[in-house]
Amino acid sequence: MSQPYTITTAISYPNGRPHIGHAYEVIATDAITRFQRMMGRDVFFQTGTDEHGLKMDQAARARGIEPRALADEMSGYFKDMNDSLNISYDRFIRTSEPDHHRASQAIWQAMEANGDLYLGRYEGWYSVRDEAFYDEKELIEGEGGEKLSPQGTPVQWTVEESWFFRLSAYQQRLLDLYNSQPGFIQPESRRNEIMRFVEGGLSDLSVSRTSFDWGVKVPGSAEAGTPHVMYVWVDALTNYLTGCGYPDDAERMARYWSEGGDITHIIGKDIVRFHAVYWPAFLMSAKLPLPKQIFGHGFLLNRGEKMSKSVGNVADPMELAERFGVDQLRYFLLSEVTFGNDGSYSAEAIVARSNSDLANSFGNLAQRTLSFIAKNLEGRLPEPAPQDVDSDLLKTISDAARTFQTAMADLAPSTAIEAWMRAVFACNAYIDAQAPWALRKTDPARMEAVLATLYEAITNLAIIIQPVIPASATALLDQMGVPQANRTYGAIGSSAYADLRASGFTLGAPKPLFPRLELTEADS
Ligand code: ME8
Which of 8, 13, 264, 339 to mutate to test the pocket of ligand 1 (most atoms within 8 A of CB)? Predict the structure, then answer.
């Protein structure tokens, strides 16, 4: 069996509808997933919604409904967004599902059995917006002198009976983990931040609440007199295990959550602490395997500004996808933003990028080549007779395929796309220099050889870019008659083109793939 690969996004709070930041995270994770599947890996990709906690409880109360009703409604929008954006998840998990409650209680009991949970009294600062506890020393001052979390959200002084997790006992083991596995936290800037935080000392973590009941029940607490629900991050992080079969399905766990397993969490930079500090500590305590890497991507900004509901600049990803196209949006986000850095989006930038790369460069290359073949050879695939320039072009594309693969394996989609785009440019330079339309009368054999080279080149370019723009690449490969089994990196540089010709495939009139996008006055 092929080697398993487990990949997850964060699970989103469904206290409102999804925004473009949520779309960005699932799109990036989907591209990596599709790439790993193309590499023949046995991938498990999970995304979903994080439905418990005070934030959800308060958002629901504010609308006069039960948290479960809010979760049911909003979670549907997240799932629809995933489906519309062509996200190939294997499971969309909702933390309100029974198997997830069971997994959360099981990890709780394992941490308790290890002696890491004790009952105490929490007194400290809490941000509902971040669902996070903060030390006094971490707080910043707001404009009116009020105390704010380091993320700039309001904090409230909280006093209640609470279970604690002995996080302080894990400081050295966490530092050892970061030192022995330098790739555990990525990118480097996030790793440094976390190392400083852990070196500064860790307080025990309050891991249960008694002031509301929207969460996973702490085993045994109701029987003992005071019902507790788990701190939402304990259950939220456990979602990753639930999807991998914990605690009942040992076979599934061995496949997707094993010691030394290839397990990647893709999350935003604001929640790296939960994933890189609390999560491995919980897992160590429960004697469970650790993930291999945690990648904290940057934030998307609206024309360079932080998105916020009060400013009214929160973009709806579905609207953008409907207007500009799903693949256009995917391509824009993955090519424009260096994964790990913050990035900006605007209608102008999406239109500019899509028109220059997809419509004018790649789309036009495919369209003019294929329609020329359809018309002048009645769709018969041209016969190769390679000269050095032809083999050189095909070699440039195989090299680009390799660079693309290395970059995607390194979680660097924008670098991968740049390599692909350079290969597209090389094809356009080739077509201009070889001018097959001029050869039609003077040298038809050479014209065929040039078109044959281009046919193979375009096929390979479409194969390479499948993880980024899956629907368009598929449509093109379908038009070009490329059999499913040959849509792999291994088929690049093989006899696939010769085989396709031998099969007698004829090309129909090509359908354009990437319409030129236009801005409207409302965009400026
Ligand atoms: O944090 N740009 O949920 P969430 C890019 N439930 N990414 C962004 C972003 C932006 N402007 N805004 C948010 C949570 N994100 C928890 C996670 S995981 C066990 C629990 C990212 O709905 C954010 O960093 O607030 C996170 O990775 C994801 O969207 C969900 O954010």
Answer: 13
Do 243 and 91 touch, CB atoms closer than 8 A? yes
ipTM > 0.95, yes or no: yes
**Is 524 a residue whose pLDDT tops 70?**
no
pLDDT of residue 109: 98
Predicted confidence at residue 209, as pLDDT, reads: 95
Burial class (CB in 10 A: 0-12, 13-18, 19+), 176: exposed
In the chain, the largest separation of any two C-alpha atoms, in whole Å, equals 93
Backbone angles phi, psi at 132, to 5 degrees: -145, 145
Q: Cα(91)–Cα(402) distance, rounded to whole angstroms? A: 30
Average pLDDT, the chain: 96
User: In what helix (H) or strand (E) does residue 498 lie, and over which residues does it extend?
Assistant: helix 496-502
Q: Is the pTM of this model over 0.80?
A: yes
| Residue 2 neighbours by CB distance under 10 Å | 10
The whole-number pLDDT of residue 16 equals 94
- Burial 300-318, CB ≥16 within 10 A → b, else e: bbbeeeebeeeeeebbebb
Measured CA to CA, the distance from residue 55 to residue 51 in angstroms comes to 9
- Determine the average pLDDT of the residues in 43-66: 97
Cα(11) to centroid(ligand 1), Å: 7
- Considering only CA atoms, which of 263, 262, 216, 283 is closest in space to residue 50? 216
CA-237 nearest atom, ligand 1? 19
For residue 270, how far is its CA from the centre of ligand 1 (angstroms)?
A: 7
pLDDT in tens, 98-117: 999 999 999 999 999 999 99
Question: Distance between CA atoms of 86 and 224, rounded to whole angstroms?
Answer: 48
* Distance from Cα 268 to the centre of ligand 1, integer Å: 6
